[in-house]
Write a structure and sequence with these properties.
This protein is mainly alpha-helical. It is built from 5 helices and no strands.
Amino acid sequence: MIDQWVSALGDVVNMLLGTPGSDVEKYVIAGVTFLVMVLVLARAGTAFGIANADVFHSLMTTLLGVLLIVISIAAAKIYCPEWSNPNWHIWVIVGSAVLVSVFIVVPLMCLFQKTGFIPALLTWLIGVGAAAAIIVMVGAGFDMASAGQREAGKEQQHKSEMNDFLNK
């Protein structure tokens, strides 16, 4: 039972991070995303007039929010029979993330940061949007770097073939 949960949590994290190629990529993407989400929540919360929109409260909100969303998606993967249906797969993921965000994370954010529901919801949506953008940008950066390395290897091989051909 615990192996099933550990496997599901690992699959969900890899899926949310865009299936990184190595552990270094996974940790860099997760760390940068987490840091940016904390800073965006703090800044957006201040812009919306949230009283306790400091880094500590944003850190607690990000930790609990991301943890609860990942656990809910893993639970959906384990217990929801619609997960295996490719037509419903994305809807199960989005539905569980939205339900947990609206009914658990945002009310917890209201309690932690002593604010109303709408400012907390808007702040959370901006933070999640920023996290998604960072995941895409950092993942694209790693993809560009690996593509550049492959091209450099092909160029080096072509150069050596040309030298062999000219030296014959």
